[in-house]
């Protein structure tokens, strides 16, 4: 109980069955030890209720043993068991008051009359044992169901529990047979004492052997030893009692034979040792009458069934002194009756019981004295030392040694442990050396893994970017197209206005604005002065908003009004014409900015879209690389730099499977980059197409300044560019590499000052 928190509910549940078994055993001891009518109350109101509580507690324990596999079954079974038990206890208690308290010759103690002809009384007699049989039958069923369901050690423990329950069920069934006079008391007592010890030992050992129960080897050994001791003493006691009973019956038979001999020899009052009554039934007179019975009692005795072969117990009164061993015999053709007091037999039995109790106590004392020698020294202490060594090893001490000199299994186990710890110690030293050797290799691997991780993260980011770009490219293109259309609409409107007939004032205003397009700004120190002067001039000419107009003029480098154009501001028409043309100029300027921004956005969307999308292989077609490259050369020849020589050579006409639009993008990007890299004077680009056995080879070489060595490994990275901010997306070569890879090919670059060579290989269609 001091460690009850560490115990399972199953183990704690054993307390109730043990408690009930204790009081049940006490009730049996009282009934068998005292020959008095009051023991009938103990039998009915103590023994019977406790045996039912024992059955219910054991059943509840069985349902929860190992695991509660059937909670619904357990709930309803407990309710039904309690109802049946209450009914049985009430029925047995009520039936007790309708029966006489008599000495039962088979049970050899006082019990209510067991031979009533009333059906209700018979039901009250067997209600306790019958209810217990039903409870234990249900318990056995659930244990068998658990046994079939569980596996391994749990199944084995359930098997032991089933044996214990079957033992209790056997006792209950035997109790029914005894109550119905189908079973003799000696046999029942033999089963009761021995089976009870065996059953409870099985329950305790099964519970102790669960992995969740904190117990010691010594405790288990003591439990087993005590069980064996009690079992041996129980068997010896039963044999002694049976032997004593047989000897006493032999002695009574000798007494009977002695009296018969004396009567046949003519003795009227024979000499007796044990007998209190010797009655001549035929003449109805007493030959021996130590109990002072009357002749009326002889008439009662005559009605008792005769027993010539053996002695049987008979009770002539409610007084224990009226209980006799009786038998009949014939002498000189007369029917004689002999009665020997039963109380003498019981007194002799009590002396034997005292002797057995003394023997039991001495045996217990002997076992406890021998326990340190037999078990602690040879089993428990060596196991404790071995366990301490294992705990030290577990804490990291590999130099521990267990010293056990015995030559038994524990000694072999200790030697094996010492050998094992030595092997582990050597292995640890070798392992530390290997760990030291491989640490550097591991560090190098970690660095490589970090690089790989960064590449994977970059690939994941590019994959995510590709998915986003593919999904939003179309949505971005729509507003860009609308902006382009609006710009063109505004430009067309301006063109229509410009195309109309111009007056002299309009021409003068246009000439004024055209002159200041290439004008440079003045120094900052003089700019504020000029702006003030310009505002003052506009005010003198009655311009409606001189400050705003001055700000706009300064934004477009108009800081003064030259004298030839001052006449524009002399008239209201001139002032309005100037402001109108200035507004048109401002609108055109901002339209150019918008158009440039839209073009850049379109290029970025186009690059993202083609970087994320690869055409399906099912839609690939047979393509001539020669035709594709030639179409690019002819299509963009007018827009490339002048004074650049392009040397185009072909060997064969390789045919591949691919997407024409994607490959056009490849050639366009590479050739355009080569042109951009070439010097303004003396630039040369060599393009070579060659058909090999399995691949098509394309090389593009320029004589530009080359790619710096430090950035050469990064030119295919997405968004990497060396151009000024806003001049490139950094996706061109990344898209080229991806398209080539999607076609099953590869691209390689070599660069030094004066030579940059891109080499592309694409598998032929026939390969």
Automatic annotation (TrEMBL):
SUPFAM superfamilies: ATPase domain of HSP90 chaperone/DNA topoisomerase II/histidine kinase, HAMP domain-like, Homodimeric domain of signal transducing histidine kinase
Subcellular location: Membrane
Transmembrane annotation, as ranges: 39-64, 76-99, 119-145, 157-176, 188-209, 221-241, 353-374
Any one cellular-component term (Gene Ontology): membrane
Gene Ontology MF annotations: ATP binding; phosphorelay sensor kinase activity
PROSITE patterns listed in its UniProt record: HAMP, HIS_KIN
HAMP domain mapped to chain residues: 377-429
Coiled coil: 435-462
Pfam families associated with the record: HAMP, HATPase_c, HisKA
Keyword Transmembrane helix: yes
PANTHER family per record: HISTIDINE KINASE (PTHR43065:SF48), SENSOR HISTIDINE KINASE (PTHR43065)
Full protein name: histidine kinase
Gene source species: Leptospira soteropolitanensis
């Amino acid at each position: 109980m001091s460690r009850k928190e560490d115990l399972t509910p199953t183990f704690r549940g054993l307390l109730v069955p043990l408690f009930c078994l204790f009081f049940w055993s006490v009730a049996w001891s009282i009934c068998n030890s005292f020959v008095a009518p009051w023991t009938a109350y103990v039998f009915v109101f103590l023994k019977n209720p406790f045996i039912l509580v024992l059955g219910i507690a054991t059943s509840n324990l069985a349902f929860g043993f190992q695991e509660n596999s059937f909670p619904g079954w357990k709930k309803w079974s407990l309710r039904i068991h309690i109802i049946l038990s209450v009914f049985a206890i009430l029925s047995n208690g009520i039936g007790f008051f309708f029966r006489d308290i008599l000495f039962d010759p088979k049970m050899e103690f006082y019990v209510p009359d067991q031979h009533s002809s009333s059906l209700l009384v018979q039901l009250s007699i067997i209600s306790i044992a019958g209810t217990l049989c039903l409870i234990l039958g249900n318990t056995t069923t659930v244990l068998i169901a658990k046994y079939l369901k569980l596996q391994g050690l749990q199944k084995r423990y359930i098997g032991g529990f089933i044996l214990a329950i079957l033992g209790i069920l056997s006792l209950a069934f035997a109790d029914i047979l005894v109550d119905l006079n189908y079973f003799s008391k000696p046999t029942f007592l033999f089963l009761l004492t021995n089976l009870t010890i065996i059953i409870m030992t099985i329950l305790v050992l099964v519970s102790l052997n669960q992995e969740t129960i904190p117990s010691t080897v010594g405790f288990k050994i003591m439990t087993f030893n005590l069980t064996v001791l009690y079992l041996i003493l129980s068997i010896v006691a039963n044999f002694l009692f049976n032997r004593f009973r047989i000897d006493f019956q032999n002695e009574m038979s000798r007494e009977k034979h002695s009296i018969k001999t004396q009567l046949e020899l003519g003795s009227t009052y024979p000499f007796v040792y044990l007998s209190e009554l010797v009655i001549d039934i035929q003449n109805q007179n007493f030959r021996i009458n130590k109990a002072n019975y009357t002749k009326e009692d002889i008439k009662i005795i005559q009605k008792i069934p005769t027993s010539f072969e053996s002695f049987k117990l008979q009770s002539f009164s409610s007084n224990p002194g009226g209980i006799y061993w009786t038998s009949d015999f014939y002498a000189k053709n007369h029917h004689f009756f002999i009665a020997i007091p039963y109380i003498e037999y019981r007194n002799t039995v009590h002396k034997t019981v005292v002797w057995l109790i003394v023997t039991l106590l001495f045996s217990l004392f002997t076992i406890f004295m021998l326990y340190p020698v037999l078990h602690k020294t040879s089993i428990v202490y060596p196991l404790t030392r071995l366990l301490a060594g294992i705990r030290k090893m577990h804490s990291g001490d590999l130099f521990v040694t267990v010293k056990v000199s015995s030559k038994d299994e524990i000694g072999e186990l200790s030697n094996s442990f010492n050998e094992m710890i030595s092997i582990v110690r050597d292995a640890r030293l070798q392992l530390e050396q290997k760990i030291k050797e491989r640490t550097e290799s591991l560090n190098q691997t970690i660095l490589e893994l970090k690089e790989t991780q960064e590449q994977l993260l970059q690939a994941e980011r590019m994959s995510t970017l590709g998915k986003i770009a593919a999904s939003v490219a179309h949505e971005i293109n729509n507003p860009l197209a609308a902006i382009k259309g609006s710009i063109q609409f505004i430009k067309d409107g301006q063109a229509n206005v410009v195309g109309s007939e111009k007056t002299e004032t309009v021409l003068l205003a246009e000439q004024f604005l055209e002159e200041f397009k290439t004008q440079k700004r003045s120094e900052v120190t003089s700019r504020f002065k000029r702006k003030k002067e310009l505002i003052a001039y506009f005010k003198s000419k009655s311009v409606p908003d001189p400050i705003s107009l001055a700000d706009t003029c300064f934004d477009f480098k108009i800081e003064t009004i030259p004298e030839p154009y001052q006449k524009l501001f002399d008239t209201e028409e001139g002032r309005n014409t100037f402001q109108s043309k200035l507004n048109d100029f401002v609108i055109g300027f901002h339209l150019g900015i918008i158009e440039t921004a839209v073009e850049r956005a379109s290029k970025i969307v186009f690059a993202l879209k083609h970087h994320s999308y690869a055409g399906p292989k099912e839609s690939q077609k047979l393509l001539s690389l020669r035709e594709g490259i030639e179409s690019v050369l002819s299509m963009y020849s007018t827009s490339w730099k002048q004074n650049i020589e392009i040397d185009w050579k072909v060997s064969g006409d390789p045919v591949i499977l691919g997407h024409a639009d994607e490959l056009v993008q490849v050639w366009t990007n590479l050739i355009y980059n080569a042109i951009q890299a070439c010097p303004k004077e003396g630039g040369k680009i060599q393009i070579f197409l060659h058909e090999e056995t399995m691949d098509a080879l394309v090389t593009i070489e320029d004589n530009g300044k080359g790619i710096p060595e430090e950035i050469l490994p990064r030119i295919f990275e997405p968004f990497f560019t060396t151009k000024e901010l806003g001049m490139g997306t950094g996706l061109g070569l990344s898209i080229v590499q991806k398209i080539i890879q999607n076609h099953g090919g590869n691209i390689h670059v070599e660069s030094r000052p004066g030579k940059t060579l891109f080499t592309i290989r694409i598998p032929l269609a026939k390969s």
